[in-house]
Amino acid sequence: MITCVVEYVIDPSEIEAFERFGNRWMRLVARHGGTHHGYFLPAEGASDKALALFSFPSLAAYERYRTLFGNDPEFIEADRIRDDSGCVLRYERTFMRPLLPEPPREGTGDR
């Protein structure tokens, strides 16, 4: 599994547009084989930082999804929300592999 972590610098005055943008991308990731873990928006502290995390079973699966950028009408429309509103000032994408908790083993007392 590979997880993409996207760190955004956003325009705080365009938070509603960013939420529309995020909702659209969450649906697209799910529709094309990924698992979206959500967008994390400013609550306290810096008002211009946001994160998104989503996973694909492999880098190859993610790359298949990426082939739709700039080609598929739904992907173009999702990007248009960002471009027309200016809600995203910049972003940086990092790929990570998750270390997830192991389920407890029966009879060992592990929790």
Automatic annotation (TrEMBL):
Pfam families reported in the protein's UniProt record: NIPSNAP
InterPro entries: Dimeric_a/b-barrel, NIPSNAP
Signal peptide limits: none
Limits of the NIPSNAP domain: 7-99
Stored Gene3D superfamilies: 3.30.70.100
Name this polypeptide is given: NIPSNAP family protein
Species of provenance: Streptomyces similanensis
